[in-house]
UniProtKB/TrEMBL annotation:
Alphabetic keyword roster: Signal
Protein name in the entry: Tail specific protease domain-containing protein
Residues making up the signal peptide according to the UniProt record: 1-20
Domain Tail specific protease: 300-540
InterPro entries cross-referenced by the UniProt entry: ClpP/crotonase-like_dom_sf, Tail-specific_protease
Pfam family, one: Peptidase_S41
Length: 662
């Protein structure tokens, strides 16, 4: 069977790979190349001992996993005590080949079912990605909540590599996989899918059944898989015997210097607090899908590739839509401002808003922390995090760099060290001031659409929108992916703590869940790990969604969201006002029109400046606000909060004011 370059498969894919030598082949042909470089005994010992340090002394979810899953006596079949399991590897290290060592250490990490906890293989093994030319999705039909159906068919690969095989169609139901009823097949790979809880487990398992990256997982054991399906159109039952295909960058294999480090392959996926497997999955889908925008309506791009928006007419109403495909934006400093300006301008006159974070693997925690304020009448709260109370954490954080830059975390671990508590007290990543710097920008009902692949910072965002009471959570699955931690690379610890952490040999890398996320607001002291954010309204995909761009699901959400009552309290500037208000020198007032509001409070640079009882009921009332006397050129922030008689915030807005000379 001849190896085929990606460029020969489809013209539509040529531009995406012009800069790389991406090739495709059959797993049966390439399997001999998916290998590990041989390690010395000393290197094996280093890997095992560093893994044990990570899992015993840094892994913050270690005890939570014991409680949630219990412990299996077999390290290969369920959740195990990770530190004890690695100790067995260390005890047996002289009997293990390099491949066996990598396989056992990797499996111990995977068995924790924590997608923030990773043992990443080195090159050349890490260069390969095994896949089937189809994807699976969960659908629900009546009492059957866990159907498995074909979600995507990559026709290019069927045409170029599998021309004699029947090409399945989107919507066809999977009945058997590898000779097993599909539910049994899913259960058999729950561990290797590594998804947390019932919903994340199912979703990640069906993902793993069609896409297996060798950066963190061994290749499929068999070269082919027999799949029995039922046609969605005719009801016909048929089978296809699919070979596993492999995609890889030939340049990575030819670059001998790169063999010393797998970071070239993993940095982009694992550099942030993001779930790397989902990022790889999303990139694969994007690379191989000719129609990049498959929603049932077109979306408008922004200057940030991960943010798109639309306005969808629904009868006499208009529904706003924002898609956030990742919390790792190309320009982190601008992402929140782009959303802020969308809400203030293009989406300002919509009747409700949906924020779609399905399949978003996460990213920057600070990004997630700053979004709830845009919808909150009062002050938005953020989640917090805590450390495992261990001697190593204490020693590592009590270094000069951390005392200077992270004094609050040093204090938390030092205080914990004086106790026998499992965890430190909690600290925040984003200050209350930073989490409320922009103020409210949208005043209509808001919904967040998430699924079990919404993970990491996306878990945090979804939970914070719920905990702040500013959105209804619509669940394609009943909960989000349940990844609640700040994740860091072994390289971070090795660079800043060489007394305890040694460089990993041969380009192996590891990540660890280091600070455990704890919810606030309406769900205080609840962890996200394993539990996720429970949907307020379940909107599972139906068969029709697979073929109509999720329009059936979208219509259900739209009907529910647009039926919600809209607050009658609010404000309006009497003249055109942008993000910056120009104040003429000597003109120290500002007029606004207020509705259904008892009183207003005016803040200048976050300090209370004026309180007025306005009694604006019935007909909207124009209110004159005093402004401070400032010299020309001065810029300050004004915050205006409308409240009820009990001083509960009903709305707020913040603007910059620039004083101009007469």
């Amino acid at each position: 069977m001849k190896l085929i370059k990606i460029a020969t498969i489809a013209l539509a894919m040529m531009s995406a790979f012009a800069q790389a030598e991406i090739k495709n082949d059959y797993l049966s042909n390439v399997r001999p190349q998916i290998t590990f470089n041989e390690l010395s005994r000393a290197d094996k010992q280093t890997l095992a001992e560093q893994a044990q340090l990570f899992l015993r002394d840094l892994y913050v979810n270690r005890y939570a996993k014991d409680i949630y899953y219990g412990n299996s006596p077999d390290w290969n079949k369920g959740h195990v005590n990770p530190a004890d399991a690695v100790q067995k590897v260390i005890n047996n290290i002289d009997k293990l080949s390099t491949a066996q060592l990598h396989a056992q250490l990797s499996q111990i990490f995977i068995n924790q079912r924590d997608l923030h906890l990773n043992y990443n293989f080195p090159l050349p093994h890490a260069a390969f990605l095994s896949f089937l030319p189809i994807n699976f999705a969960r659908t629900a039909d009546g009492a059957e909540l866990n159907e498995v159906r074909i979600d995507r068919v990559y026709a290019n690969y069927f045409d170029a590599l599998l021309p004699s095989l029947r090409k399945p169609e989107v919507g066809d139901q999977v009945l058997e996989y590898a000779g097993l009823p599909v539910k049994q097949a899913v259960n058999n790979v729950l561990i290797n899918g590594a998804g947390a809880n019932l919903y994340g487990g199912f979703s990640r398992a069906i993902q793993y059944m069609t896409l297996v990256p060798q950066s963190g997982k061994l290749p499929p054991a068999n070269d082919r898989v027999l799949i029995k399906l039922r046609s969605a159109k005719t009801g016909e039952v048929y089978s296809i015997d699919l070979p596993w295909l492999v995609q890889y960058d030939d340049a990575a294999l030819e670059n001998k210097a790169a063999t010393a480090s797998a970071k070239a392959l993993t940095d982009k996926a694992f550099a942030q607090s993001v779930e790397g497997y989902q990022e790889q999955y999303n990139q694969f889908v994007s690379r191989n899908t000719a129609e990049s925008d498959i929603q049932g309506f077109s979306k408008n791009p922004t200057a940030e590739p991960t943010i798109k928006w639309a306005i969808v007419p629904k009868g006499e109403k208009r529904l706003g839509y924002i898609s956030l495909s990742s919390f790792v934006p190309a320009n982190p400093d601008q992402a929140v401002n782009i959303i802020y300006n969308l809400l203030r301008n293009q989406l300002a006159k919509t009747d409700a808003l949906i924020i779609d974070v399905r399949n978003n693997g996460g990213g920057y925690i600070s990004y997630a922390d700053q979004l709830p304020q845009l919808f909150k009448p009062g002050k938005a709260s953020t989640g917090s995090a805590r450390l495992l109370n261990t001697k190593l954490n204490n020693q590592f954080l009590n270094q000069d760099d951390f005392r200077q830059y992270w004094p609050e975390w040093v204090k938390l671990i030092n205080d914990a060290a004086k106790t026998k508590n499992t965890y430190s007290k909690t600290g925040v990543f984003t200050s209350a001031e930073d989490a409320n710097a922009l103020g409210q920008a949208y005043y209509k009902p808001v919904g967040v659409l998430a699924n079990a692949r919404s993970y990491s910072a996306t878990d945090l965002f979804t939970c914070q929108m719920q905990d702040n009471g500013v959105a209804t959570i619509y669940g394609e699955d009943p909960s989000t992916g349940a990844g609640g931690a700040n994740v860091l690379e072994h390289g971070f610890f090795a660079e800043l703590g060489p007394d305890w952490f040694k460089p990993l040999p041969d380009g192996v890398s590891m990540r660890v869940s280091w600070r455990q996320s704890v919810r606030g607001g309406y769900n205080p002291n609840t962890i996200i790990e394993d539990y996720g954010c429970q949907a307020d309204v379940n909107v599972p995909r139906a068969l029709s969604d697979l073929v109509n761009g999720d329009q059936t699901q979208f219509d259900k959400i739209a009907a529910d969201l647009l039926a919600k009552p809209v607050t009658k309290s609010g404000y309006q500037f009497t003249g055109p006002v942008g993000n910056i208000i120009e104040q003429k020198e000597g003109n120290n007032t500002l007029d606004i029109q207020v509705a259904e509001t008892e009183l207003i409070k005016v803040y200048i640079d976050n300090q209370l400046f004026e309180t007025q009882a306005v009694y604006a009921y019935g007909t909207p009332k124009t209110v004159r606000i005093s402004l401070p006397k400032k010299a020309p050129g001065h810029i300050y922030q004004i915050g205006i909060v409308g409240a009820d008689a009990g001083q509960v915030a009903l709305w707020n807005t913040k603007r910059l004011v620039q004083v101009k000379a007469q």
